[in-house]
Design a protein that fits this description.
Blueprint lengths: L6 H10 L8 H4 L1 H17 L9 H14 L3 H13 L4 H15 L1 H17 L17 H13 L15 H16 L6 H15 L3 H13 L4 H15 L1 H18 L1
Helix pairs in contact: 1-3, 3-12, 4-5, 4-6, 4-10, 4-12, 5-7, 6-7, 6-9, 6-10, 8-9, 10-11, 10-12, 11-13, 12-13
Length: about 260
């Protein structure tokens, strides 16, 4: 049985992976391949209002971040190759992985860092890549505080030293490590970093309070409600419906709070 894959889905696959080798799933699971490919690589891309008008680079950055968040390591390898074909640079791919450490922890990020290095090496990319750090141990806290203010507003100016004394160090680490070490790096701007953070949180689930806050931060940086709906829509095949619907609820809540 040959799956009836649409011309649009085949064309998308070829753009993602020039000379795409025939998957063994075409032999073992032709019905599955037919339905998934036609949905993910045709219907999702071409449905009106679903984000098919997002540029390829943005779409694939969101997909990579989503696969990190949901721990889809096998799919990530294939989609990293595709992302690099579709306009994501090696530096941008690495920055997505690095930033994920603050939101997923090294236990979940380490396999993706290794996979990224292997894919880049397979493609002849010399490692390490050009440095992107813009802070030092002495400047990271001040720079991180400023990044928090730029993203969330002036109310974050003193957040690093707020809260109960026995956990105030966490807020300091949030400013100095999460934002000072990672958000200040080159390779991605703040709006792009907030988009991928939104995807990390949406995909891992159980972080709805933070997801709502970061949806609001996205909107402050110009990634408006319509944009975030498009991002979620494009990630449905990789995220699944429960977490996609949760993410949309958080987007709506953030928009309502902004009003």
């Amino acid at each position: 049985m040959q799956p009836a894959i649409t011309d649009a889905a085949r064309a998308c696959r070829e753009r993602m992976s020039p000379g795409y080798a025939t998957s063994s799933f075409l032999e073992t699971d032709p019905e599955f391949v037919e339905r998934f490919d036609n949905f993910a690589f045709d219907e999702v891309l071409n449905a009106e209002g679903a984000g098919g008008d997002l540029d390829d680079r943005t779409r694939f950055m969101a997909i990579l971040a989503t696969l990190l968040g949901c721990q889809g390591i096998d799919a990530y390898r294939g989609f990293l190759h595709a992302a690099l074909e579709m306009g994501v640079t090696p530096v941008e791919a690495k920055e997505i992985v690095y930033q994920a450490t603050a939101y997923l922890g090294i236990g979940r990020v380490l396999p993706f860092l290794q996979a990224t290095n292997e894919v880049l090496a397979d493609r002849g990319v010399a490692l390490p890549l050009e440095p992107q750090a813009r802070t030092t141990p002495e400047t990271r806290l001040e720079a991180g505080i400023q990044a928090q203010v730029d993203i969330f507003g002036e109310d974050m100016r003193d957040f690093w030293q707020s809260g109960p004394e026995d956990r105030r160090h966490i807020n300091r680490w949030l400013a100095g490590n999460c934002f000072g070490d990672w958000y200040t790096r080159g390779g991605l701007d703040l709006a792009e970093r907030e988009m991928v953070t939104f995807c990390f949180l949406a995909a891992q689930g159980g972080c709805e309070s933070q997801l709502t806050s970061h949806a609001a931060a996205n909107m402050r940086l110009g990634n408006d409600q319509a944009f975030l709906v498009k991002v979620v829509s494009q990630c449905v095949p990789y995220l699944g419906y429960p977490r996609s619907l949760n993410a949309l609820c958080c987007v709506d809540e953030a928009a309502q709070q902004a009003e």
